[in-house]
Design goal:
Layout lengths: L32 E5 L5 H13 L2 E4 L10 H13 L18 E7 L7 H8 L7 E7 L9 H7 L4 E2 L3 E2 L5 H11 L4
Parallel strand pairs: 1-2, 1-3, 3-4, 4-5, 4-6
Helix pairs in contact: 1-5
The structure holds flavin mononucleotide (FMN).
């Protein structure tokens, strides 16, 4: 029942079969993949859904308890203050079955030349020992490398794969990246 797309979250009071496999075949089809993403204005969500369409697994949106302002300028101010204080905004998204996953795609927009602080909250909420972390981002021009010091700091016990900077129109680039990493034939 888990192959259809969403991870088990605590607010849904569901249990998930240990043996469930990702939705479709890939070179990693014996492993379980979670695609977790934060997205404020939909760009990263679109890329996350493209990745999900190509590799299957479970997909979950990382959401904060306090939503960010929809006004762009206001949002940048909130995000800047959070970045400057290295805040850990509280999340409403909780993955109850993180032990089921050994590969976690983590997607986010670049905010102030790094990942949103909600990604910090998310990655610090779980024991990532031995897991594989696959970062991807969208941006207005920044490269994902700007966020890698933060991701490396947060995922010290995990193996971190080469990340992707993409837009929602970059389907072929995203596919080529997944092929290079071995998730798509
Ligand atoms: C608070 C905030 C900060 C941003 N900082 C950057 C930045 O430092 N570099 C950049 O290239 N784009 C920056 N952007 C643009 C976003 O990364 C870009 O629009 C992204 O695709 C948004 O993804 P989303 O639609 O999934 O939220 C910023 C946007 C916001 C709202």
């Amino acid at each position: 029942a888990c192959g259809n797309g969403s991870a088990t979250q605590s607010n849904q009071n569901q249990t998930q079969a240990e043996s469930s496999a990702p939705a479709n075949g890939s070179s990693n089809s014996d492993k379980k993949i979670l695609i977790a993403y934060f997205s404020h204005s939909g760009n990263t969500e679109a890329v996350a859904q493209q990745i999900h369409d190509m590799i299957g697994g479970d997909i979950v949106k990382i959401e904060t308890v306090n939503p960010y302002p929809s006004d762009y300028h206001e949002c940048t101010e909130v995000a800047k203050a959070e970045k400057d204080s290295n805040a850990r905004p509280q999340l409403s998204t909780v993955i109850d079955n993180m032990n089921d996953y050994d590969t976690i795609f983590i997607g986010y927009p670049i905010w102030w030349h790094t990942a949103p602080m909600a990604i910090g909250t998310f990655l610090e909420s779980y024991d990532l020992s031995g897991k594989t972390i696959v970062p991807f981002c969208t941006s207005g021009g920044s490269d994902i490398s700007e966020s890698m010091p933060m991701i490396k700091e947060l995922c010290q016990k995990a193996t971190i794969k080469e990340g992707l900077t993409a837009s929602k129109n970059d389907v072929e680039k995203t596919k080529a990246w997944l092929q290079k990493l071995g998730y798509v034939k």
